[in-house]
Amino acid sequence: MTTTSRPAGVPVDAPDWSEELRESGLRITSGRIAALEYLSEHPHSTVAEILRALRKNHPSLSTQSVGNIVRDLARYGMIRRIDLPDSGAARYETRVGDNHHHIQCIICGRIKDVDCVVGHAPCLTPSNTQGMRILEADVTFRGVCAECERKNPNFPALRTRAARRRPMRRRPPLRG
Hints:
6 helices; 3-stranded mixed beta sheet; alpha+beta; 176 residues; single chain; two-stranded antiparallel ribbon
């Protein structure tokens, strides 16, 4: 990652996205720079969220153009595409080059990064690789964040298995 002098308010260790694009072989465009800057501050964003945030300063952007931007950035390894259960849409982040995982709240959908459980990629080793070289392992932990648990104490998934079981009613014996 290359760093250079920055305008006021931009951290010195922030990526120089123009240089990163140049090194990856991609053309430097204002849309790509804006998307990378947004994703570095708002990881796990969808195309719609990126578009909504960038449209004010980039009115010519469309859903299709932002989709093309993230597709190209992901293809060149500058961002990572994440497809999480019940997420509704692909999400993107600039944290690449490690094998971190994600934890997702099943109520509010909040997504957070979780470092690799072993510390090297891939964190999991399959019993049979089917002749493939494994590049990464994707694990999504699903749970309930503390805020949602506090607000939704009776959410069905939060009750213990025993509490979810209905007691059997005893029927009187048949007489006859």
